[in-house]
Amino acid sequence: MSARQFSLSSRVSPRLADLGLLGPAIAVILVFMVAPMAIMFVYSFLQAAPYGGVEWVFTTEAYSSILFERDFLDNSLTFTPDYLIVLARSVFQAGIATVLCLVISVPTAYYIATRPERQKNIWLVLITIPYWVNLLIRTIALLFVLRGDGPINAVLMNLGIVSEPLPLSYNGFAVCLGLIYSFLPFMVLPLYSAFERFDFRLLEAAYDLYASRRIAFFRIVLPVMRPGLIAGSLLVFIPSIGSYLAPDILGGGKTLMIGNLIGTQFQSARNWPFGAALSMILLTLTLLVLLWLARRAGHQKSDCR
Amino acid sequence: MRTSASLSISRSSERAQGSTEKPRLHDPRQDTIAAEVKGLSKVYNAGSSRAYEALKNFHLSIHANEFFTLLGPSGCGKTTLLRILGGFETLSAGTCTIFGQDVSRLPPEARPVNTVFQQYALFPHMTVRRNIAFGLEMLGTSRVETERTVERMLELVHMTEYADRKPDTMSGGQRQRVALARALAPRPKLLLLDEPLSALDLKLRQKMRLELKALQRETGITFIFVTHDQEEALAMSDRIAVIDQGRLQQVGTPEEIYEHPKSRFVADFIGESNLLDARVSGLSGTEANLTIEGFADIRAPIEWPLEVGQAVSLSIRPERLIIREAGEETCSGMARVVARTYLGNAVEYHLVAGNQSLTARAPRGGLRGLLDFAPGDEVGVGFEPGAIKVLLS
Questions:
Q1: Residues B215, B156: contact at Cβ < 8 Å?
Q2: How many CA atoms lie within 13 A of B15 on its CB side?
């Protein structure tokens, strides 16, 4: 109310004042998000030019080549699962990273949220400190740690636990580790705020009504915290599924994820329409997940009303 | 641990068929001890510089079927005592028994006790029905039995039509009823109520007082009720324990507590009191002769050992202080009116007599109500016979 009175509305009409406040943000979204996505959408229905770029001929070739391979000689289509495998691997990797982030974050967030006020801030800063360093540098540094001649293998071999270096890098394990490391705070922070808002007297009420610790956790804590759990999972899953750096550097290009596939199409493969089509598929997939979760969260909300 | 709780519940459900259906007239279990604490102490932050003793060597027995109130100002330790009975706080010393069973070291889920929390702590993601059923489900009660009990509880607290609503769509009074039903559904042997009325507005609070009292009679469950509101305590309780600074000050029926306060604290905290300094000037049989500066000597019954010459505090309720026209013979002293407050059904006069200040309350409409005084008037002050209480401390 007071913000309203303080605003420009006394001199300018309310609608104009709103536009003045929101305008810059809307402009940025229009220019840097809506417009590029529209271009992508259009490109995905065009033909690839031989040296990158597009030719203005309408075709659904880009989409069909995700599932079918066109034979050079007789122009016939045969089904190929290669790209579907990449897509499935991306969903799988991102899913594993999300679940592991959840498992790590729940106790962490609980611990931080139950500290005294001053300690909380220290812990929150500690959680975000790695983010003061660039993601690329952090990812490469992680590679050095995991490599065959890296410190982990050195320690394990010196202790005689293993005789040969463990294959920690350039595989799915390393990629998954990289994803977890990259996106962990996006899980910790929403969960922290959910725990922060959680009324711990509900737990006392549950114990009072003969619930065990385990049952109280599953029947009271988890359901009440569901919005936070969903928010954290989305914030980890969505960037994970399209991630580029971690699979590229830690996977050594061997465990291709959809982000790398798209990147390649715009760079070395010079097949812009195909890259655009893959992007559209990824975007659609992400939106479907979002929509599904939003509806579920919405249901719960409307139950509460 | 679970078994002990479920055993006791099944025992108490037997009683559900019999005695609870009709209001109790005479209760044969009056002498059964429902809860007892002995030598109970609670120290927070023990051993550190911030150590704080919330309860000091506390002894208390609560009878079965009683509406028992723990009354005291905030921070007096009453809530700590309730939380120790519920199992939410550990005790530092002493024992705590519930129906003869030592529960000192048992967690809340192993005690045959349920709690109505101050802010109700209803599960926000569950409907009213699910909330009420929760305790029964945890005890492994059969689905049919659970449903039947939930329906009965909904009726008991008049919430049947709200059964499928969620707590945050309801008013404070409705939530409070649900919290009551949820805590009563598993038929606890002891119901703990932590200031359950404090979040409600005055009208609703007064209505809920009657409902709570009726509910306690109907169910026959022992209620232990925590409040800082003395009016609430007097209106509902069978017995009251007055607590101050972690110590038990006095236990008794509302009448005993109000009419015969033992200490300055109780006299002052329960209702209003004029506290006068006096000296014992003589003892004769059952009565003591008391000298109050500026007043004629008065007599009061001896309720505890007194010595001649001893300095004591006296208490007299404002409504039992009589004021008259100055110069009337029945008065025992003189005072000057410094303020007059109109209260609707009564008028309150603030008086000064020598170095003592007094408050007198005269009901409107009565004989004395015909008299009225203004600030500055000199009046005569008298004490109703038997109204003066000699305090122990």
A1: yes
A2: 17
Q: Which of A84, A47, A68, A29 is nearest to A270 (CA)?
A: A47
Q: When comparing pLDDT for B104 and B371, which is higher?
A: B104
Q: Which of A201, A209, A223 sits opposite B134 (nearest CB)?
A: A209
- At the top level of CATH, the class of A84-304 is mainly alpha
**Contact A305/B at CB under 8 A:** yes
Residues on chain A touching B5 (C-beta within 8 angstroms): 210
Q: Beta strand B239-244 with B287-291: parallel, antiparallel or unpaired?
A: unpaired
**Rounded distance between C-alpha atoms, residue A24 and residue B96, angstroms:** 66
A11 touches chain B (CB under 8 A): no
Instruction: Give CA–CA dist A201/B282, Å, rounded.
Output: 57
CB B94 within 8 A of CB B102: no
Q: Do B115 and A223 touch (CB under 8 A)?
A: no
Q: Which amino acid is at B356?
A: Q
Contact list in A for residue B106 (CB cut-off 8 A) is: none
Q: Give a three-class secondary structure readout of B304-365.
A: CCCCCCCEEEEEECHHHEEEEECCCCCCCEEEEEEEEEECCCEEEEEEEECCEEEEEEEECC
The reply to whether residue A210 touches residue B2, judged by beta carbons under 8 angstroms, is yes
Cα–Cα distance list, B192 to A107, A167, A255, B232, B283 (Å): 32, 60, 61, 16, 46
* Residues A26-50 as b or e (16 or more Cβ within 10 Å = b): eeeeeeeeeeeeeebeebbbbebee
Q: Domain limits of chain A?
A: 84-304
A contacts of B184 (beta carbons < 8 Å): none
Q: What is the mean pLDDT of chain B?
A: 86
A78 phi, psi to nearest 5 deg:
-125, 145
Could you tell me what percent of chain A has a pLDDT over 90?
42
Distance CA B250, CA B315 (A): 16
Q: Residues 209..268 of B with a Cβ closer than 8 Å to A: which? A: none
CA distances from B33 to B84, B101, B257 (A): 17, 11, 21
Interface probe for B, chosen from A202, A204, A208 (most Cβ of B below 10 Å), is A208
B123: Cβ contacts below 8 Å, ≥ 6 apart = A202, A205, A206, A220, A224, B130, B131, B134, B167
In this predicted model, what pLDDT tens digit does every residue of B304-329 receive, in sequence order? Answer: 888 888 899 999 999 888 888 877 66
Partner-chain residue, chosen from B114, B124, B138, that has the shortest CB–CB distance to A211: B138
Stated length of chain A? 305
Per-residue pLDDT of A109-155, as tens digits, reads: 999 998 898 899 999 999 888 888 888 999 999 999 988 888 888 88
Q: Which residues pair with B223 in a beta bridge?
A: B67, B191
Six-digit token string for B99 = 């129906």
Domains and CATH numbers, chain B: 2-259 (3.40.50.300), 272-390 (2.40.50.140)
